[in-house]
Amino acid sequence: MWVIAGVVVLALVGVPVAVTLVNDAAARRVQAQLLEFQLPDDAELLDSMSQAGKLTGNGNGMQYLGALLINSDKSATELRQFYAEVEDESGLQITVTPAQDVQGFHGVGGFLADAGIEGTFVVVAWGDGPGWFFENFDLRGH
């Protein structure tokens, strides 16, 4: 009887914890992929982060984000052109936005460095998850 109760408790607690850990690892993989690519000339990496959850939009589902906070003398347009090539190579969906324009974005609060300095940009990559089970059974996606 105690064994059955223990298995039930382990399943109820263990599955959500395991799903969360696997999804966090998927977001860290997106961040690692983004970090593998060389930064544009004259750019300096200030910080990086990853996040898994329902980050934008409505409805259910998980999103896996990796983000870089960089400082560069290049314009946003030049950086977007640079990262468009990276996007083609990596299969990631990448956007570049001046850091001052993304204050309401959930992930930016995770940066340790100051995101409000002129010439600072947020490079965001959206990646794929580990599979339907993990995407549907993570409470953060609902």
* Biggest pleated sheet: 4 strands, antiparallel
How far the N terminus sits from the C terminus, by CA atoms, comes to: 34 Å
Order of helical and strand elements? HEEHEEH
Number of domains: 1
Helix content: 25-40%
Structural class, from secondary structure content? alpha+beta
Give your account of this protein's structure.
The chain has one domain. The protein has a four-stranded antiparallel beta sheet with strand order 1-2-4-3. It is of the alpha+beta class. It has helices at 2-36, 76-90, 132-136; strands at residues 44-53, 63-71, 93-98, 120-127. The longest helix is centred in the N-terminal third of the chain and has 35 residues, at 2-36. The mean pLDDT is 86.
Top keywords for this entry?
142 residues; elongated; alpha+beta; 3 helices
Task: Annotate the secondary structure layout.
Layout: H1 2-36, E1 44-53, E2 63-71, H2 76-90, E3 93-98, E4 120-127, H3 132-136
Antiparallel strand pairs: 1-2, 2-4, 3-4
Give a brief description.
This protein has 142 residues and is α+β, with helices and mostly antiparallel strands.
